[in-house]
Write a structure and sequence with these properties.
- There is one protein chain.
- The protein is α+β, with helices and mostly antiparallel strands.
- The protein is built from 3 helices and 4 strands; from the N terminus they run E-E-H-H-E-E-H.
- Helices cover about 30% and strands about 15% of the residues.
- The strands form 2 sheets. It has a two-stranded antiparallel ribbon. Strands 3-4 form a two-stranded antiparallel ribbon.
- The mean pLDDT is about 90.
Amino acid sequence: MRIGNEIRRGGTVSWRTNNPGNNILSNISKQLGAIGALKAKDGEPVAIMPTLDAGFQLQMNQWRRPKYNNVSI
């Protein structure tokens, strides 16, 4: 997988995609700059984020959704 000038092979899906939460490609991920998707083993399209910071921001945005308001980590 290529992200910018870097080619990533092996490792975890979250490392290869700069997406620590393995969040799927969605409108939220696209707003944060997703540059594509990688199919995970379960077939879900994991968003490829341009930077690790963007991936962390995507995860934080997911946790701030009402669905997670009363859930502990």
